[in-house]
Design brief:
By secondary structure, this protein is an alpha/beta fold. The chain is 24% helix and 28% strand. It has nine helices and 17 strands. The strands form four sheets. Strands 3, 4, 5, 8, 9, 16 and 17 form a seven-stranded mixed β-sheet that branches. It is globular, with a radius of gyration of 19 Å. The two termini are 20 Å apart. Bound molecules: zinc ion (ZN) (2 copies). One zinc ion binds next to α2.
């Protein structure tokens, strides 16, 4: 019987364990994908560390999957065997709730999330609902485009929510910020990068990608910003970013989990500043970003780990030892 391997989380706050499993057969509407690369997202850390409640357990994490179609279930059309596809965080939606009906499927009442409520890509193979998979014809190397599938897609949604302003602050210069900085600069915007205090490596990295300024998140930017996106899971950055944006400026929280936001004076919000969060993605976000990223020449800085070293990749992300994104190679 054919088999696959996966790194499995049995319970939060325990290491992933390599397991052999029977190779799944795709149900009607599903495809089986042979994984070529799977990015490691901060959300995976939140699942493993127990900061996101009620994962399916045991769970195979991973929702930045690049692979090739190995089998298709009944009724699947539009995917050829061997074709390269991407599988994102949004695994399925109900299609009938008020959110799905109004073009906000990212807020679906009964969603399925890859690597959280259905098994993901820390594996040699993954099964997915074909309607939520995307062809990946352009963009180059499998590992280097894996971070597009979440850091890119949800980063893009956050970026759109930040509006059309010409000066953009990015708090937390990890996988998502390094992608969005390239998009913003390609579009003629000026990027201000905020990192952990004293993280000169990340600041140099941001400047090398074209940021006009890089500094610690405790610092004020040299000029007021039109908008800021917070990718770091640190609630204290919300008042810090509000201080950095101009009147009417926007602060977008792009992560799924954040520490508590400290209280702050109303004067920081006054003058029509906005604070908002971005949740998940829609398929429209994905189509937009996957068309734009190759045109913008988005290049991801990646560190490759063999699948069996998934725990090391997570530890490096947790400790802030990564530049760009970690990617698992089965
Ligand atoms: Zn729905
Ligand atoms: Zn993610």
């Amino acid at each position: 019987m054919a088999s696959m391997h996966a790194m499995v989380l049995d319970a939060p706050r325990s290491p992933l364990v390599m397991r052999e499993r029977p190779l799944p057969v795709p149900a009607p509407g599903e495809i089986l994908v042979k994984v070529a690369a799977c990015g490691v997202c901060r959300t995976d850390l939140h699942v493993v560390d127990g900061e996101l409640e009620h994962p399916k357990l045991p769970i195979v994490p991973g929702h930045e999957i690049v692979g090739r179609v190995a089998a298709t279930g009944a009724g699947v059309s539009g995917f050829a065997l061997g074709e390269r596809v991407g599988l994102p965080w949004l695994g399925a939606t109900c299609g009938i709730c008020p959110y799905c009906r109004s073009g906000a499927e990212n807020l679906c009442d009964t969603p399925v999330f890859t690597g959280y409520t259905r098994d993901g890509g820390y594996a040699t193979h993954a099964v997915a609902d074909a309607r939520f998979c995307f062809p990946l014809r352009d963009g180059g190397d499998d590992a280097e485009i894996a971070p597009w599938l979440c850091a890119g897609l949800i980063g893009w949604r956050s970026y759109r929510m930040a509006g059309e302003g010409k000066t953009l602050g990015l708090y937390g210069f990890g996988a998502a910020a390094h992608i969005l900085a390239q998009v913003a600069i390609w579009q003629g915007r000026r990027v201000f990068a905020f990192t952990r205090k004293g993280d000169s490596g990340a600041q140099d990295f941001a400047r090398a990608l074209g940021a006009v300024w890089a500094g610690g998140s405790e610092q004020a930017p040299p000029e007021p910003l039109d908008a800021a996106i917070i990718f770091a899971p640190v609630g204290a950055l919300v008042p810090a970013a509000l201080k950095a944006v101009r009147k009417g400026g926007r602060v977008v929280c792009g992560g799924i989990h954040m520490s508590d936001i400290p209280s702050f004076p109303y004067s920081l919000l006054w003058e029509e500043r906005h604070v908002m969060s971005v949740a998940n993605l829609t398929r429209t976000d994905a189509h937009e970003f996957l068309q734009l990223a190759p045109k913008a020449g988005v290049h991801c800085e990646v560190t490759r780990y063999p699948l069996a070293r998934a725990n090391d990749a997570l530890a490096d992300l947790r400790a802030g030892r990564l530049q760009g994104a970690a990617v698992l190679i089965p």
